[in-house]
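Extended Data, panel c. Modelled sequence:
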Amino acid sequence: MELTPSPPTLSLSLLKGRLVSTVKYPRGSVASLSVLTVSISVDTIAIRDKKEEKVVHLFDVASGKELREGKPLCHKVEIVSLSLSQSGPGSQRQLAFLDQNHDLFLTLVRETTPTQTYQTVSLGGMVGSIAWNDSTNMLAAVTDGRLAVWYHPLVAFTNKDLLPQTLVRQEDSNFKKSAQLVQFVGNCCVLRRDDGALITTSVSPFPAILHQYAASSKWDAATKLCRFVKDPALWACLAGMATNARDLNTAEVAYAAVNEIDKVHYIAEIKALPSAECRNAELALFSHRPQHAEAIYLQAGMVYKAIQLNTDLFNWERALQLALKHKTHVDTVLAFREKHLTELGSKETLAKFIECQGKVKIDWDTIRSKIENEENRGLQ
C-alpha cells in the first residue's frame, strides 16, 4: 500500500492506484510526515502528532476513522519512531515505539476485552532502532550494541512473566549503537552500519514455524517442534500462544517444559472448573487482567464470583460497590472486610464501609450458607 499526502488528508491506495481509504490528519501538515513518524499495516495507520510529539493517532484503514474511541495514544516522553506489526489478525495488531530516552514500548492497537483498557508495556532501554518481522509477530531491536529479538512480544499482554524467556540476544562487533535495523525478513535481519555498509545476520527459523502452527491451531505439531528443537525460548513462546488461544492442555505441557510448576498446578485447577465462564475468567486472572475477569463474571450473571474476586484481591471498595449495586452479599463483603481488619489489628477508614456499619446485620452462619448455595449453583 502507498500513503499519499494531500493536505489536510492522507490518501491510502494500493500499488495499482485504487483508493482504499482517506484519513483526515487532525493536526499539522501532512507534508512533514516521515518514515519514522508514520507506520502502516494492512488494517491500521499510526501517525505521530506533529505539534505534540508525545501523541500517536491510530486510524482504521478500511473506514479512515480514528481508533480507541477517537482517543490517541499519549506517552510521557516525546516519541521519536514507531512501527506497527505486519502480520496476524487486527485484534493482535501491536504498535512498538521508541521515545526520546531510547526506551522501547509496546501497546495493543485494539482492545477486544469488555473493559477496553489499553496497556502499554516497557520492553527495555538503550534501544537504537526496531523492525517487525514481515510475516510473523517477531520484533527485532538494536540495543546496547547487541541485536535483540523477541520471538513472541504479544506475551507481554497475556503473561509478562514469560517475556524475558522469549527474548534472545546476539553479540557481534558489527552491532554498534549506531547500527540501524533496515528490515527483518524471514529469519534474516539487515542492518546498516554508520559507514553505510549493509550487514545481514540470521536468527533461528523455528520461531516463525511455531507462529505458523499456532495461527493454524496445530498444537500437536507445535508441541512436537518444541520437543525436537529443545529451546526454552520456544517452549516459552508456545506457553504464551496456547494460553492466549485457551488451549489449556498445550499450555500445561509448555509451562512444565520451562519449569513453571506453579502455573502447571494453576492450569490444572482451571481445567477442573465446571463452566466455560469460570475457566475464561480464571485465565484472565492468570494473565494479570482482573478487570477482564470481573467483566466475564458479570456478563455471565455470576455476581457473587465478581464480588469474591475483588475481596480476594483486597479490592474492598469495588466489592462493596458491586454488592450494593446488585443488592446481594453486602453482609458478605462487610464480614470479610471486618475479619481482614481484625487480623491486621486496624480500624475501618473507608467511608463507604463506615456508612454501612450498623445498617447491615452480620451473621456468619447466614453468610456461610449463602456462599455454599452460590458454590453449589456454580457446580450445576
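The longest helix spans residues 364-379. This feature is highlighted in the accompanying rendering.
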